[in-house]
Amino acid sequence: MASSKTGYKEKGFMCGLEIHQRLATSKKLFCSCTATLPNDSETNEITVKRYQKAVAGELGLVDRAAKFEEEKKREFIYKVNEGHACLVDLDEEPPHEMNAEALGIALSVASGMQMKVPGEIQPMRKQVVDGSNPSGFQRTTKIGMDGFIEVGKSRIAITSMFLEEESAGIETNSPGEIVYDTSRIGIPLIEIDTDPYITSPEEAKEVALKIGTILRLTGRVQRGIGSIRQDVNVSIKGGARVEIKGLQDLDSLDKYIENEVARQERLIAIKKELAGKGTDIGQPVDLTNMLKGTNARVIAKALGSGGVVFGFALKGFKGILGAEVNPDRRLGSEISDYAKMGGVNGIMHSDENLEGYGFSKGELDKVRKELKAGNNDAFVLISGKKSAAELAIKFAVDRAKAAVDVGVLPETRGAIGNEPFTTRFLRPLPGRSRMYPETDASPIRITGEMLGSAAANAPDMERTRARLIRELGSANLVDRLVLSPRFQLYNEVAAGAGQEKVFIANTLLQKFTELKRSGLSVDSISASRLAEVFNTYSSGKITKTGVEELLKSLSVADGSVATIVKEKGLERITGARLREIVEQAKGAHEKNKAAIITDVMSRHRLNVDGEELNSMLK
Amino acid sequence: MYGKEIEKELEARGINLWDSVRVTKGKEAYEGIVMPRTEAGDENVLVIKQNDGYNIGIEIKGAKIEKIAKAERAPEQRQQAKRPLQNLSKIALLYTGGTIGNKVDYKTGGVYALTKPDELLDEVPQLAGIANVDTKKISSVASEDMVSGNWAVMADEAAKALNGGSKGVVVTIGTDTMHYASAALSFMLEGLTGPVVLTGAQRSSDRGSSDGFLNLVCSAHLASKSDIAEVGICMHSTSSDDKCHFIRGTKVRKMHTSRRDAFRPVNSMAIAFVNSEGDITYNDRYRKTGSSGKVKANAKFDNAVALVKAYPGSDPGIIDYYCGKGYHGIIIEGTGLGHVPNLTEDKKKSWLPEITDAIDNGVVIGMTSQCLYGRVNSNVYRTLRMLGQAGVVYCEDMLPEVAYVKLGWLLGNYKPEKAKAMLNQNIAGEITERTLYDEFVD
Prior knowledge:
- The complex is a heterodimer of chains A (618) and B (442).
- Chain A is an alpha+beta fold and 618 residues long.
- Helix content of chain A is 37%, strand content 21%.
- A ten-stranded mixed β-sheet of chain A has the order 21-20-12-11-1-10-7-6-5-22.
- In chain A, a hairpin with a 6-residue loop joins strand 11 and strand 12.
- In chain A, helix 3 (201-217) runs antiparallel to helix 4, helix 12 crosses helix 14 (527-538) and helix 17 (575-589) crosses helix 18 (593-604).
- The model of chain A has no long low-confidence stretch (mean pLDDT 89).
- Chain B is globular.
- In chain B, strand 17 and strand 18 (280-282) form a beta hairpin.
- In chain B, 49% of the residues are buried.
- The longest helix of chain B has 16 residues, at 148-163.
- Chain B starts with a helix and ends in a 19-residue tail after the last helix.
- In chain B, 24% of the residues lie in helices and 24% in strands.
- Chain B has three domains: 4-69, SH3 type barrels (Roll), CATH 2.30.30; 90-297, 3-Layer(aba) Sandwich (Rossmann fold); 305-423, Rossmann fold, CATH 3.40.50.40.
- At the A-B interface, strand 2, strand 4, strand 5, strand 6 and strand 22 of A face strand 3 and strand 4 of B.
- Strand 4 of chain A pairs antiparallel with strand 4 (55-59) of chain B.
């Protein structure tokens, strides 16, 4: 139930973005490991296992998100590839000096967004107890604040920018354990935050696009999957701030926001509906003995391995747990998300077809009786290992109570997958108390010299456009190029190129999009290999059609460019050899120009340059 | 603290730490809470914590500071340590200082010590389920600042606790010189009736990933459950948080500057492994509890003992120097099997004459190896025999730091001749007759 696309102001819509962009530096932010990611072929040899607990922040409070993660008592497994991670990344060595290259890039972005930069920057530890950093915190430093960007006719405030460490990448995630790959930890990342006054989901998308473009203008950011991520904060009147984390695809950004608005509207409506009913959430009851011998497979399986079943009643909730809050998402799914955090696989509830799970009618009657759930009430069942089920039922009861007392909870949520662009609960929204100083890294004075160099290297749309128009001739082509995610790739590939820059730009914009749509992963071809392709073309060894063929091959094959050219028979036929072929064709077609061209091209489409052929026939 | 200029400005405006302020500088304005200064930064930079939790530094020159609101510090959210269960054994937890009891220190930009050892129990509530823990702060000394007097206090307190009914003792201590302390306690404590477990942290406990939590839990298990009657160190056995090892106090050394598993047995095996559930796996022979007498602390120590290192080109004048200062004993960390430069081209670089002189003057000289692993031997080379004949005591497979502590303790308790005779005789597991194949780094 996507809400209507207008009327956001009336809804009290608030929306802000946090854009995270990995920087293309040679080293990580606080150690000397490479800042590039490993190839798929590289394996992780070493495994380290850790636990983490929530500790008090600088202001003495244990952050609620941190506390929540600790209650889950999960084991974190870190896979280590020694080519990409060292003791610093494993929290086994203090950080080295902050990477000056990364700081320089961050300062130039701050300058490009007209931000204030503090006289001395202070590295901080942001507590993260989901295990995504072995130290239990992410090093983050505020570099700039109070800047702005122009998006169309609006001026969008950029409240702050941070230079921080990338977290570990999740390999697998199960209730009791998360496996992380440590290679990514510590790659420099900048976070750019807007103010919360973005007026519509569409505008949010435009702002994200613009920020991405400015970042690429620096020419110093990483590209490829996951190198830029958007977090979106959304709330409406009567709702609460919800942060949707890690959206990687800009195209669907607005749809996630629309769905979140709809979800909050539904939860507010549910709260109102419940308010009139005299609802109450019952105490959890142990149903283990009662359900021994049940045919409900999920329960039987849990009991078979020594587990337990708990249940609780939700007075006046009949029909509410099954009410849709988003496409394919019900209030029951929201409660289930919380229960899962305890380490169970989910919940079952009375708005579902429980007999379909294998419960007999008699069993369900007994459960209702035991839980004191009447005809207008609902109930929730949770099964699993005792320790997990105990935690899970606590989380589920709390969440159910919140449906009555709070409506919308402040949460951090994550995308479930692609369509229909919905999200699930990840953890409570973290508060301020998760910040404390990184005492192992010294504060850094920002000198006039640093600011001067930042201003000189600041991303500047107009300057860049002017340069590109000189280079490419067409303003239309330049505008499309600058907005394209392949803009930085263009700069890298075209750096040493001469005449063929227009061809490069067109290939990256049009041909790449075409090939990508046909299912080829052209974006996985490295800049250096692409440069080689275009060099091969400009030195006359292959034709434009040959370039396309070569790109197709490179997106699936390894091998060197020269080898593929040879294997695929892409060498250009030119000069004397072409003349020879033309002469033969002339004989066969009695100098009929069109017939000759058709003949030659049908046999040598990939190898003959049309223009050269034409000029020979003049 | 801040530089004079900032201090003056804050005082003039009645601004204290943690107050909310607005700092205006030209057209720019910043708001936040005044934070204590870290010495790592510039003293002319005022650090404020902004509403988003981030600290920033503002150069105060040309800036105007106004107070917006008085400090409103959130109350510390203290967990109440659980009441101990009746049937748990009593152990003592002696707090001496070090990273394990550290929190963020704004003064030095580093970390500061907890004021009450009970805070440690709040940090690790599991301890209450393991034993009835009596905490006592006996010092607040950083590891690198420890002296023999600190070890003496530890020995006295440990003996007192054991004699007072504690099943075992846990000593929390800074890691840098933990192995010196464990050696000292090994010699000082006589007739142990339970384990004396030294532990600490390589990561401070203000971070969720601190190794100190597991180290403390495992140490408490050992102190309350094991039948070991020895002094040892209990720290992470690997980089993972899965188990700790307990290593004899005289056969252990910090072998890494920062890793959690920095403490390794040298020329020995770990006595036991223990996990957070309290499962103890014994791995080597050890002295068992069973003696019913009182534990005695012989804590006297002669501080006129030195540890010196011989290396290519080293100046033997160092021996002269210590003798001149009236030192009674010197442990040399020699090369290989126990060499010092001897037949050097430049005669002044030969150590033999200085050593001979020292010994003639009654100074006890012991030889260990900077190889750490293995045993010194004075018979393999002629030059070694010359040293041996001069009266240098070859300290077998004893670690240099342990030999240093042992000699200080011996000279504190015995006449030099007796001390010299005892230096290469085993007292507390510091010397083994057999060195096993597996007792070397993997």
